[in-house]
């Protein structure tokens, strides 16, 4: 996201999170993604996600059995947070 200067569930390079999972050969029956930007600490971003119904549903979904987590920061700027869930 940082390198391509966007903040969205849809990547200009890979398409949707589901398209990206397929492109990288990750098999799944169900999948979801949480993204956030600007929170300064892991605690802040998890609190934000848990206070958002859709994000909380992804985190608590018993059908998800694996997670990938990414964190990146612009030079001197915002922090980008990503969770990808699969089951």
From TrEMBL:
The chain positions of domain SCP read 1-85
Gene3D superfamilies this protein is in?
Answer: CAP (3.40.33.10)
Q: Which InterPro entries match?
A: CAP_dom, CAP_sf
Which domain of life does the protein's organism represent? Bacteria
Q: Which Pfam families match?
A: CAP
PANTHER family, alphabetically? SCP DOMAIN-CONTAINING PROTEIN
**Protein name (database record):** Calcium-chelating exported protein
Instruction: Tell me what organism the protein belongs to.
Output: Clostridioides difficile (Peptoclostridium difficile)
């Amino acid at each position: 996201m940082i390198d391509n200067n966007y903040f969205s569930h849809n990547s200009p390079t890979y398409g949707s999170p589901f398209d990206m999972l397929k492109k990288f050969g990750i098999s799944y029956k169900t999948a979801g993604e949480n993204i956030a930007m600007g929170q300064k600490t892991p605690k802040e971003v998890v609190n934000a996600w848990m206070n958002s119904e859709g994000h909380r549903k992804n985190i608590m979904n018993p059908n998800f059995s694996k997670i990938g987590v990414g964190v990146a920061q612009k030079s001197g700027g915002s922090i980008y947070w990503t969770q990808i869930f699969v089951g």
